[in-house]
Structures are given as C-alpha cells and as structure tokens.
C-alpha cells in the first residue's frame, strides 16, 4: 500500500496484519483495512456507488453488502474493517437480490436517457446497473420523483442536474475532505434529501470551482459543460499544468485535437488527483480568437504590423540583431525568458544569448518574484531551492505561513495544508492582510501576526530574539550541522534588546506577547515548517528575510527531515526551473557563476563558443541602459515586462528607446505593443518539455495538439540561432533535456525516459539519488555547514507621509493568474472581471469613499483609478489590490525601489493617497487609446512587406 492515499493524506497503515478469506481466497492486509479494500487487493471487485478510493468510507448506498460467515445481516464492505480469520462472501443469490433491489430504487427515480446522456459509457450508475444484472424496474415514475428538478447551469464550467442525483454525498465529501471549502451539504431527509450549496446557485456560493465534486460524482449530475458539448473523450495524454508553482499533473482527455476536459491525475506527485479552477477548467485560452499565429514585423511601433513568413520574420530579427551589435556593440542587446516557458525553452534561450549573442545579458521574471529566494537560500543552506515535498506538510505540527496566500496563489497545496490543519496542526500566519487561512471552515490561525508591510525583517528578528533569549535554540543541531562562529555572531545580534518583541512591537503593529507566543510555538511545537511567498521576497529587504527564515529553521533544527523546512511557494509554473536553467545574468544552469573558469570551460567546450565571464545586465539595468542609449535590442520570450514589472512608465519609455524589440508570445501582450518583431508562441498543450515546480519536481509537459503557429517555442529560438550562424541540431525537446543533464550535475539522472517511468522527479537526481531527492539537507547542508547571517532591519525608504499616508500592497487571487493574459481569456472572468482596491472602513470613511466608488490612487510614481471595496481584511492604513488586468495600471503606481541583493522590486510597499474620483487617470486614458490602436494593428496586419 502506498504511503499516501490518492490525495496525499498519510494512510492509516498498521504494522499488524490480518488474514481473512474472501470468496475462498486467503488475503492478508494491514489491520484497519476495509473488507472492500481487502477484496480489491485480492482481485475481487465489490459493487459500490458511494465509496471511492479517494474519500473516507461513508456507507450510504448499501450496494457493497457482503456476507460474513457467522455474522448476522449484510454489512457494508466499505465501512466494515477486516478481522482475523473471517470468511467473507461477495457474491451469493441473496446478495444479488439485495443489490438489484437497491439499484432498482435508484433507477426508478432516475431519467432513463442513457443513450442520449453526455456520460453514456462513462457513468458508474450505468456500470453498477449492469454489474448487478438489473434488467427491469418494477416501480414507475408515477409516484413522487425528482425528474423535473431544475438544472443549475450558473457555473461557467460545470452544471448540476438534480434529476440525476442519487444523493450519495460523494460531492459533499469531496468538497470537504479534498478541497476543504465545505460549500455543499445534503439538505433534508429521506426522499426530500438533496445536494445544496447554501445559496441560490453554485456561482453565488462559496464554491471555488475546483472540480473535485464533479470528479467524484458517479452520475451525470455534476458534469463538465465541455463534456456535454464535445462528448465522451477518446484518448488522454498526461501533462503538467502551466499555471502555478504547484505543478499539478493532468490527463488531457481528448477527441482528436480537441481537449474535452482536463482531469487531475491521481498519480500526480504534487496534486494526487486534485486541481484548482485554473488548471482544471481555464485552458480555453489556447484556442482563443486573440491568439496570433502568424509572425509579424514592423519598423516602428507607430506602424501597422506586416504579416510575414517564418523565414522572413526570423531573418529580419537576425539582421536587426547583427546590425545593432555592429553599430552599438555586443552588450547592446539581451534577452528575457519567462517562468511560463519549459526548462528546455529557457535553456535554449539563455544558450542563444550567451553563445550566439555573445553576452550574459539574460534575465528572467524570477527577478521580480523569487530572486531573493535563490540568493538567500544559496547563502545560508547552499541551494537555491525549497527543502521539502508538498506532502511533507502532512507531517508538520506547526505551519508558519509568512507573506503567502496558499489558498489563492497555490490552491491545491492550500487544500493539502488545510487538510493537515483540520487534523490538528497549529498555524501561525504573518501577513498584513487577513488571508483566507486565518479563518475558514474548521480552521483558525493560532496567531495572526498582522504586521505592517515592510517590517518582515523586524518580525524575524523579534521571533529569533525570543528563541535565543528563552533558551529554545537546538544547540546540539547547530553545533553538528552549522558554522558555530556564524551562529554565535547571529545569536549575539538577535539577543540585543533592540530586537526584542517589546522593542519592535510598535514598528510591527503586533502585540509583543503574540510574537513571543508564536516564537515559542514555532520552536517547541514539534515539526515546524515555514512556507513563504512574494510577501517575503518583494521587498527592499527580501533577501534579508529569506536568510532570516533560514536562520530560524537552522536554530530550531527544523530542516533536514519531513514535516519541517524552508518552503518558498514559487509563483509561476516554472519559476524554479527558469532559475535552474541559468536564466540569470550571473549564472550558468545549475547556479554556477559565469566567472568560474572551470564551469565556463565546460560550457565553452560543449557549445563551441567563447563565453563572457562578466555577469550581464539584470532586467532593471537593461531598462536603465536603454534609457541611457546603450541598450538597443531585446528578445523577450513569454514574458510581459510592461504589465508585470514596476513603474510601468519607466518600462515603456525604455522599450520605446530600443531599436528592435522581439516578442515571442501567444497574444499581443502589453510588451508586444512596443515590439518590432512578433514571433507567435505555442501554448503548453502544443509542446513537449518539462516544468519544475516549487518542490524541485521536474514533470513532463506533453504535446496534445499541433502547434497553431507551426512550431514549438524552442524551435523558433533554434531557428533564430541558425539565422545568426549557429545552428542548433535538436530534433525534440528530449535532446535538449539530455544536454541539460550532461552539463548540470543536479539534473544528471533526468531524462524523458525516466519521467515516463516515474511520472516526475525531484532534483537533485544523480547517481546517488537516481529517483531524485524529496527532502534536502538531510545529513548535511548542500554548502556543508549551514551558515547564519546577521539580518539587520533597515526600514524601507518608501515611507508614508502627509502627501501619501497609506501603504499599498499587492497580491493575487485564485481565479486569475499573474498578468492574466491567459485567464482573462477564459470564463474565469466570471469571478474577477476587474482589479479592485481593498480599503479599511476607517480609511474609506475618512475619505468619503463608499463600496463600488471609483478611487484615484496616487503614488510618487504615478496615478491610476480602481473601484473600491470596503473590507476589514486589510488593516487601517493599508490598501490592497491585484494586478491581473492591464488597464488597472497597478504597476503604474509601484516604484523603482528594490531588494538590495537581487533588485527584486518592492511591490509590497508603496506609499499612496486615495481620493474619490469620477474618471479614469491620464495614464489609463492614454493606455486605452494606445492599446486600441495596437490591437487594431495586430488584427488588421498588412500582408505585403513594408519594412
Ligand atoms: S451530485 Fe453526484 S456526487 Fe453529489 S450526491 Fe448527487 S450523485 Fe452523488
Ligand atoms: S467545485 Fe470544488 S469548491 Fe465547488 S462545490 Fe465542488 S468541490 Fe466544492
Ligand atoms: S494553477 Fe496551480 S494549483 Fe491550480 S491546477 Fe494548476 S498547478 Fe495546480
Ligand atoms: S459503497 Fe459501501 S455503502 Fe456505498
């Protein structure tokens, strides 16, 4: 039996075994196993309807009855545990009669429209009717029945048809046990019992559209609308979600080239059969009419686009790169990769830039999210990655969530975390805002440290102070595993009175006693794990906080085993991978510095080109250099810096100053509006490769349909390389992965073949760890001894003042994904059609702002207008918004401030003022005009060359 059930909950496996007889066969199973499961182990299938292999047994349908010799009655095998020596019969004439009777009752109140039902051939009720041999139904529809019950079609993705419901409660239990939302109940009793969502319909309810209930439903009651539209799928291909850093595995169920539905894979190492609304349902963007599938070029961003052949586009881009380098020098160009790209695409792009462009001017969107994680964890622990598997959380006694919102940002892991919390783990949340985890059904944070934005380092210092001064350090661990000298310096630093909770309480806005209690809980509550997100990294001291978190874990011995660790919740699907693949200007794949002679020699020999030992430009430096007239061309693959980087005006002015901007993307994104060459990209459904999730899990991306543009993205990059005189001879993404494995020690054992065999692999994967490494730093840290760093709190220069008295902080929500280019082109807009600004009632009242009013938000960087939502989720003095819609201009107001070590922008702290307004901001009006023109240029391209 596997260590985990399908949904990652540790199975209650006993060491003691029981032997019983089922249908004459001796079967031995662990104590506590149900008779139904034991029968399954012995190859005997017992009819069932309310039981599934992923939910707790329920015992309501009475179809799984068995006979046990010497016992009276007919126990339900799904809820009856095995006992030593019992003799069970699963098939007898009496059982057959009873089961037929049960089925007859179900079918007598069920529409007999199997032939025209959307799930004909894929329905458990139909299967069970066949299995029990039901041939006739003696009771008609004449009596009371549910056949005229009204359908609920409010959810954009699935419908609820109560006339087909057998009230087995699988949906209710899936919502509770798997998703943890508790949106459904069984209302009423007996004949009147029915599934209810507590509101008028699903869309209005607490439902987050994860699809768990749809998957659990044994009938066509809860069914995907896409299945109704397209019919039952014909074949399936397992691939990996292209949205967030959880990296859920899905079976793309297909009819020819048409995706019928995406079903979360039970074998997925990260998701164990669960999903969220994005991966499960929001894949329609792949065939959205806005997709651009033909290459386009133009001389100026004020010109219309000209649609050209691939050869023309590639040759034009190559000639521009050569011209610009000849005129302005090698360093005048660079490239940006994206965490939406596969590992193979990122690898090939950085190879093109280093080996063919001849510069290290390559950066990635991790610059604006988790670059401090890479830096901070490398310094302290020796590896730029999280330490655990997601399943590790099921062994945690204390969960410390800092600056992360897992139920929105990493929903499937959020559900797993909630499962562990319902089992009794303690919860500390450090967040300026009341995220859902603080209080949700059956979960309440033990401590919500509602700190002021920008004070993370002070909080870590105060917690460390308590641990050090109250004797809670695990000195034996520190002595054995860490650099003792560095520990002593850190210990003496945090022990200073100015780092005490009492001294820092005012700065933090958190009562000292809460900090003390939370610190004691973290240090003494058993296995304690820290999960953090962009609320930690996107600060002027992001790297400092990451190092402070690692210090805490080392000091309390909470690293190196299951249930503990330092866990960055990586935002995008492949942010870990894009960093692993060397898309930072100072590092080759595998985090090896470009100035390291041996590493450079390795890549020079493999790539056959001399490589620069000078670190290249980071994204903000590229932009600054563009404005200074020194940076002239950019190859931007899958990234939208205009919408996702701070200080939008600065970004757009820098792009306007360049002579050639090449954008490779699915859509005319905001950056593409400033481009001169557009290479159409392929969606994740149209390509092969791998993504690496937040737990270092490398998972396969498999092509399920032909690329709409004709090529996978790595092929386009390879074509550009050829046009620049450096042919790349890969035939398939697997060839690129083989090269990565050859040149990157942590990937040494990873290949497509291995991924086919194992499903996924967590790096490091090498000769010592051929199946990968779920938990890192077990016996020693990757850097040898763990190193403590002093983390002095330096308040950000972004301070509130009379002109800008409020702090704006930003974040994401469940239904949308980052810049929203994909999710805005799906029915997910039903949940989040626009970005809004959350304001505390006191701040709203002071300014005469009511719910729904238009509000001007001004910072020293710029001004925009959003609709107000008055809520106590934010604290007084703090306002919050998301950045999923470009017209919102959330990054028009964020500033150029950034992390001292990595330049990660300080997205989480911007001093602003709010005023009630009646019209859009100047920026928004200009944006509207500019974007309408650009969209028109792309929709109506010329077909003859004008360049
Ligand atoms: S909707 Fe489906 S899963 Fe839920 S009770 Fe009805 S038949 Fe069972
Ligand atoms: S879709 Fe998910 S959240 Fe909504 S009712 Fe079903 S299980 Fe619950
Ligand atoms: S968005 Fe994240 S949590 Fe949702 S299905 Fe995709 S990988 Fe899983
Ligand atoms: S499957 Fe056992 S009672 Fe329903």
Model description:
The protein is an alpha/beta fold. It is globular and about 90 Å long. Helix 13 crosses helix 17 (512-524) and helix 22 crosses helix 24 (648-656). The strands form ten sheets. A seven-stranded mixed sheet has the order 13-12-27-26-25-14-15, with helices on one face. A hairpin with an 8-residue loop joins strand 12 (296-297) and strand 13. The protein is built from 30 helices and 36 strands. It is 30% helix and 16% strand. The N and C termini lie far apart (65 Å). The longest helix is centred in the middle third of the chain and has 19 residues, at 310-328. Residues 1-10 have low confidence and may be disordered. It binds iron/sulfur cluster (SF4) (3 copies) and FE2/S2 (inorganic) cluster. One iron/sulfur cluster (SF4) binds at residues 241, 243-244, 246-248, 271, 275-276, 278-279, 410-412.
Please write out the topology:
Elements: E1 17-22, E2 25-30, H1 35-41, E3 67-68, E4 87-89, H2 93-108, H3 124-131, E5 158-160, H4 170-179, E6 185-187, E7 194-196, H5 212-216, E8 222-224, H6 225-230, E9 235-240, E10 249-255, E11 258-264, H7 277-281, E12 296-297, E13 306-307, H8 310-328, E14 333-337, H9 343-357, E15 362-364, H10 371-380, E16 398-402, H11 406-409, H12 411-422, E17 426-430, E18 439-440, E19 443-444, E20 447-449, H13 456-469, H14 475-481, H15 484-494, H16 501-508, H17 512-524, E21 528-532, H18 534-537, H19 542-555, E22 565-568, H20 575-580, E23 587-588, E24 592-593, H21 597-607, H22 619-627, E25 633-637, H23 641-644, H24 648-656, E26 660-665, E27 677-680, E28 689-692, E29 697-701, H25 713-723, H26 733-743, H27 752-758, E30 761-762, E31 806-810, E32 836-839, H28 841-846, E33 854-858, E34 863-870, E35 878-881, H29 890-893, E36 910-916, H30 922-939
Helix pairs in contact: 8-25, 9-25, 9-26, 10-19, 13-16, 13-17, 13-19, 16-17, 22-24
Bound molecules: iron/sulfur cluster (3 copies) and FE2/S2 (inorganic) cluster (FES).
